[in-house]
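Exercise 7. Predict the joint structure of the components listed below.
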Amino acid sequence: MSSEGSLTKNDPPCKVPVMYLITMAHPGEALAVIEKFQLEKVEKNLFKNEELVLLITGEGPFEASVRTALTIPLFNISEVINLGIAGSLLDDLEIGTLLPVRTFYLIQDLKPSFKTFKSFDQGVDCLTSFERILDPEKATKLKGVAHLIDREGWGVAMAAKEGKLPFRSYKMISDKAGTSGACELVKEDAHFFSVKLADELSQILLTSGVNSPEIKNSTITKIAGFHFTHTTHHKFNQLLNKLSIKMEKSHDEVLKNLELDDYLSLEILPKDRTRQLLQRMEEKIDPTKKIIDLKVKNITNNFQREGFKLYVDPYLENPNVSVSFEASTDTELHKKASQLLNLSIKDFTDMMNGEMNVE
Amino acid sequence: MEESIKTHPRVLKILDKLQSTPIFIDRYDDIWGRSKKPYLHKRDTLNLFLAKKEGQLLKLAPDAYGLNEEPHYYFIHAYNCIYECQYCYLQGYFNSPDIVLFINHEEIIAQMEKTLAKHPGKRVWFHAGEFSDSLALSHLTGELLLYHQFCQTYPEAVIELRTKSVNTKELEKLSPLKNFITSFSLSPKEMARRVDLKTPSSSLRLKAMEKLLTMGHPIALHFDPIIYHDRFKEEYNELLESMREMSLTENLNYLSLGVVRFTKEVFREMEKNYPDSLIQTGPMVKSFDNKVRYHRPMRLWMMNTIRELSIQHGVPKDKIYLCMEEND
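Solution:
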């Protein structure tokens, strides 16, 4: 019996909204974000509206990593965005500038750890540190590793990666790392940075298109007169791409170069046309293919005619061939052995040693 | 810069030329290679480390590394390179593209002397440029004279300086020695344009070879890696023709030929770093030694083709060797 309101097999599945997880290290940084996006408190350090979840991770890479990892499964998260302030290790970065982070490094006792995490292809590099870097000498030693230093980004990135979620990070320059009064200065300016970060987040989300994941075109290639299956379609695209790179031409130009009309004039089935087209494309990639195919076919046929099976390495690496036959008496065996004396693998061996006439 | 070498005269010279303030560290490997720095970050955040090489300073070279059965070693004077060749194995070898220059060349030379003593009566080869170009930064590093003096003292030793650079100024200051050989890696100009990023053009490299030859310095050549594209035969023909006109072909100490090849790791790294590279378009397979290469008939056909062309253009047959390929 099914009662009203309960989900049965025929009901459409409930749609859970896709959300961004925004992570910030300090409550002070997050204040304006909470106000601007009208986020409601879910529990301590966790806020949400219909599109966003905001997590205050606290300082320290382990804390950030654990808290992010525990939050991800609670919502239908589509992407993790780490946003916050960072100290600059370089002199020429202007306070208040928001920069995309390229790579996160982790530093412990001034030595970098092996794992690094990517955020953007381009941008600045950021070090996540276990400790606050207030000593200018320490900051100087880190200059060569990255541009910025924060306290949580690496941990958030690690959790996103483990959760198989896309990750990106933006950092606003708050101070120069290694200056003794940096913390006080940042505290004093917390409201200023918070408002700026909230504005920037609004822009980031606007350009990202909340809840509009990219729809990938998965339609099968359609060229009149040709028939593509999933397998041939995949192969066609691979070859087309390779030819495009090789010839430094666009896909359209490559297709024009392949003279498709010649294939259309052939009175054969569309799937056979496709097979011939793919063969032609392969030959353009590998000029030896046609010669090799022919030589392998010839030698295999020669052996087959005499009642032998000949096997060659399909990857064309092993120059040896295997020959097999059946015999039930000594006479048959000796006859086969004498027949073998009239067969040759020289053509194949020559080919395997690169002796080919390739035009 | 490692604190312990800050007063080394060679270091002071480097600093003077660079005119930048160093950051002092205890050991270069406390920082360098400790974290995975993406290879292409070298384009905008390339660091230079000055350090003392500890541990093995010389290593036995792999098989098929050289013309004959003589012992071959390579010495480690630096890690990483200022150039960006798409096929470079350094992109999958170290965890960082940052350059390390080692300054304890005297210790390397002491190791070479010990190695010579292990092979009495034999010619012993020492190759530079396994992990870094051996001439590109030679105007900064200033170590060529030391190795030159070593070759003067030990005629049974041969030093090979492998390079893609045209920075021959330091070399030009030295007298030619037949056991102090500069070998250039060269590709036809179209190929170099597509895969040898940030390197001097092929024609500039040819000019550098010609200049050294005119001065009497022994030169050698590596056609390695040979990469397939539709005009590869014509382009090598043109390149060899130019070389013949400069009298280079008949005066080579040796010519090595090698078709492009990768370890699995480097191939993966290359796919990631250069998804639109011409190299990716060839018919690659996992080969006899687990390296990724063109299938055997194709690579041997390419090798035979270039070998024949080289002979036709005047390279003596016995000066040609096939690099990192089966001996058949």
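Discussion. Chain A has three domains: 19-208, 222-285, 293-359.
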